[in-house]
Write a structure and sequence with these properties.
This protein is an alpha+beta fold. 30% of the residues lie in helices and 19% in strands. It has a domain of 68 residues. Strand 1 and strand 2 form a beta hairpin.
Length: 204
């Protein structure tokens, strides 16, 4: 996609402003083509009464993209590669982009997803939908007498919603496998009416 197409897409998604007000005269600014800026367009104040007439503001002002020094088309490419679980090295090698910037974008995307999940946690299942539940023990073992032995066992509790292809899942490290611990997670993650398939562990 071209930079102009990406700008249109980001505006449709509410990620970029569709209007801008001049901080000096509080009048609406106009969008103009600017060959000397990375996005090839900026907000410009044309109010003849403004003390700072012709002041320009980046179209990224106040957005997620404000801190990145690469074109929005390249930022979009990095976002797509991140969503496909491409490694940082893979993105840098394939597109010749700045490793430092790619690392920064990846980190900010993870942060945004984490914030979203805190506000709107994953919800699986629903009336008549099967969710499979199980717990697994993760314990590091020494190989050739190398590495450290884990001080304690690590149990991970997982839920898989089989109505999705492939199944959509949720996993959480748990301190114990008691009914109080596991049922709290099931009630928090699964929608009412879900059908639970388990290995008949006593806690369930």
């Amino acid at each position: 996609m071209t930079t102009s197409q990406v700008i249109t897409l980001f505006r449709m998604k509410g990620l970029l402003r569709t209007s801008m007000t001049c901080l000096h005269c509080e009048q609406s600014m106009s969008e103009r083509f600017k060959r000397d800026v990375i996005d090839e367009t900026s907000w410009v104040c044309f109010n003849s009464q403004c003390s700072k007439i012709y002041t320009t503001v980046s179209i990224r002002a106040g957005s997620f993209f404000e801190k990145f020094r690469m074109s929005l088309a390249d930022v979009w490419t990095v976002i797509l590669m991140w969503s496909e679980d491409t490694s940082i090295a893979g993105v840098v090698k394939s597109f010749g982009l700045s490793k430092t910037t790619v690392i920064k974008i990846f980190a900010m995307l993870r942060e945004k997803v984490s914030q979203h999940l805190q506000i709107d946690p994953i919800r699986l299942g629903g009336p008549g939908i099967v969710c499979q539940i199980d717990e697994s023990l993760f314990c590091h073992k020494q190989k050739y007498h190398r590495g450290r032995i884990a001080r304690a066992q690590t149990w991970v509790f997982g839920i898989a919603d089989t109505s999705f292809k492939p199944s959509k899942g949720y996993m959480e490290v748990v301190s114990d496998r008691s009914a109080e611990t596991l049922l709290e997670i099931i009630n928090r993650v699964c929608r009412p009416g879900s059908i639970m398939y388990s290995d008949k562990w006593t806690a369930y």
